[in-house]
Amino acid sequence: MAEPRRPAPAFERAITGALGNADREIDLTGKPHHSISGHHRFNLSRSHRRAPIARDWTTRRKRWTAAVSCLSTAFTGLVIGIYAGEVPGLQYAIADEAHYAILGNVLFFIGLAIPTFFCYSLPLLHGRKPYIVAALALFMPLQFPPALITVQQRDPDNPLWRTGLLFTRALSGLAMGFANINFFGILLDLFGSSLMSGNPHQEVVIAHDPRRHGGGLGLWLGIWTWCFLASLGVGFLIGACIINALNVSWGFWIMIFCNVFTLVVNVLAPETRRSAFRRSMAEANTSDGTSRRVGRGEIRMHMYSTGPVYWWEEVTASISLNISMLSQPGFLILSLYQGWIYGQIVIVIILLGALASREYFLTAQYVGLCVTSIPLGALLAVPFQKASFFSRARHHGQRTDSMTFEKRLDWTSHLLRRTIFMILLPFAGMAYTVSSSGQPTSISVPCLFAAVIGFLSNLALSECIGLIMETFDTSDLQPGMTGRRRDTAAVSKEDQEKRKNYSCFPRVLSGVMIGQTLGFLIGSAATGWGGSIVRTLGAQQATGIMAGVLFFLTLLLVCALTRFKTVKVVPDNRAKTGILAGPDRAGEWLPVVIGSPSGTTRRISLLELGRLTRWSEIRRKNRLLEGSAFDPPTRTRLTGD
């Protein structure tokens, strides 16, 4: 049996010195936690001076790290797009008459989906940079075999060449999956899980709201979404230009060069989850006083209030969290819509490429230029995440939270953008279907509607992620994170300050990873079946099926976002002088009161009715909802409606 990994010596010295007893050595080897008894006033965050967490970095350092994360995300899309653009050349190089070469991206997507769904919690336990650097380092040698296989035309009767190409492609996707699970998480580490502005969407500003810690994603959400979604089209252009003028093996050499550059910048970028911040201080009130302990692990500690002993316990906890998230009907619809947006871009790239080559007889480089209309259109959607157009910051804020849910409609920027993409995106798909009939219609017409689809898809994916952050961010509802007391004059300065003992957003991260997983799986199916559907039904009929599925999912999403149910979120006999749950000095229980509500009820949607949403968590803390957040649905009962 392997010897348990010993924690960092600096972390042990920090705790030993913080206890004020140099003779007492603390050994964390092989232990999931270490209880600290006899030190009731001990506070880990104030006991040892250390570098600030990623949310407190300087603006320049945060921007550099976020840029590296977006660049790495774009590299993943380039790898997929280059291979897709090279498929005709690959089929010629390995004499592929049965269209096996297209399965390379099918296996790559599946390889991406496996770590994204099952292993996204491991960087929370071990750090992000080890996984990113190791994944990129493993990806590079996997590109040499396909580069050598495709350097010349091979014997069609020898299946070894096709097997080698597909096998290395599957391993490449699996390796990149372990890097992909970190890229959006880095943005959460840097900016928090928030779209906050001067007047946040449908909420009153609270100066000490933990969700505002980090400044909010803002424009970086739009940039990352473009890198995740639209880089596929840029890669397709590169691949199409390669097979037009160079040997097809150059595509894999370009992947290697880009991989080296991405690896170097990731090595230079700072680690957002250093060892000292991957351990949490957990507290429990017992009959003998307060028990404090240092625990490792984020997802398992969030679900069961205790850290994992072994790394696979953290993985199983993340899988359980994913299942709990998917058991919510509203989130299931949102995640399917989010996944379809990614898969739809893959479908449009395939269909537009087939249309340009089959109906208009364009050469490879011009086919790539037609597909480039998608990333160009998506690029126009990036500035809208800054909220500088139709900005919330220009909307006069309400005095109370309840006023934001009155019958009158305030056209905030997010409401406007969500209305635009939900209404126009299905019609853009239908317009592209009509325009893809072939000659004599000019090729510029379907390219124009493809650009509109790219614009609206980038907007839609950003807003879906924003909905996940708004609905499932419960960082301000965790122990010690419900805000500051309003009666600040009656408590000490030390008690007024909040404990920032959270380091990730488990439910938000799980929601984003589930959406990415579904997107990869839909992209895999679209890649594998798209060509055969086009050959069987035709490009226009295949595009019509895509538009029909999008229209159906849009109707479901509208139903999931419509506020149809009025529920009680604050007890009628609430205490207006406190906002913290728990006993006060007189021993009276105080409910959780978020913001400045003028009423006790709120209209919520199917998405917000889920067991893991922030509104269910508030109602649960206010004793209006029975059961635990992670109990089976049959054990949860709505009360006080």
TrEMBL record:
- Where is it mostly found? membrane
Q: How does it sit in the membrane?
A: Multi-pass membrane protein
Q: Write down the InterPro entries for this protein, in alphabetical order.
A: MFS_trans_sf (IPR036259)
Q: Which GO terms describe its cellular component?
A: plasma membrane
**Transmembrane stretches, start-end:** 64-85, 100-120, 132-151, 171-196, 217-246, 252-269, 331-356, 362-384, 415-435, 441-461, 508-530, 542-564
User: Where in the cell?
Assistant: Cell membrane
Q: Which UniProt keywords apply?
A: Cell membrane, Membrane, Transmembrane, Transmembrane helix, Transport
The cross-references to SUPFAM superfamilies, in alphabetical order and at most eight, read: MFS general substrate transporter
| GO terms for MF | transmembrane transporter activity
The name this protein carries in UniProt is MFS general substrate transporter
